[in-house]
User: What shape does this take?
Amino acid sequence: MKFSLGAAQFFWPKQQVEDFYQQAKDSSADIIYVGETVCSKRRELRDKDWLALAQDIATTGKQVVISTMTLLESPAELQVLKRLCNNGDLLVEANDLSAVQVMHELKLPFVVGAAINCYNLATLKVLLKQGMTRWVMPVELSGDWLKQLLDEAEDEGIRSQFEAEVFSWGYMPLAYSARCFTARSEDRPKDDCQYCCINYPQGRRMNSREGERVFVLNGIQTMSGYQYNLINEMADMQAMGVDVVRISPDSELALQKLDDFRAQLTSAKQYPLDGKAECNGYWHKIAGMSVQ
Assistant: This one.
């Protein structure tokens, strides 16, 4: 089983991004994803900067994957997508179907990100024909669903053709919109957002009337209010054949989480989850904010 560090989803200053990935180079991650996945207006790093950063990380021997945008809204964004896909060297995580199509046209292998709605064997077969070599399970699916789908893939004789990756720690990306919720929260129009999401390095928390943290606003992205934590499911994931466990960074704490999850492979310890800050409900087919 391998461990990955997902692309940072929050908008950080360029120096903070570079400092974080310098630390990530020395982390226990086997795979590191880099790139802007949320909003093209986040231009602290341009596509050439992300590619240069990826090439630098690759000198460590870790696998580096370029992550693409999840919601494309203009021809200019499509051109950036094409440049990233045709980088000549690095594997690409396709986060929408336009990236899948570009990679297929280039006849290059790619990772299918969790934002692509791949829920069944028929869709897996289509993506495999397009060139998929790794599939990241959508965050809302359960452990039982994953096991059944992987068993079906085994029965069909296609399980060996792709790796299965599970988002296992961090704020879950739940939805994307053409509107910018962070700008709206500051009473700004999207076209004059003044890049205000850079002021919220872990997103902007959104509470219910009862004071419960229900969501985190991150530009056009709505995230879970609690951090998903599947550390106690490591044994089950390993038994069902999960290939890659993903940690989603919100800060340098994610690098420690990589070590914690790796250590759990050889430990029977059960971590007590904080029901006011963590959740694992989707995995157990209960309310997503819940803990079991």
Remarks:
- The radius of gyration is 18 Å.
- The chain has a mean pLDDT of 96.
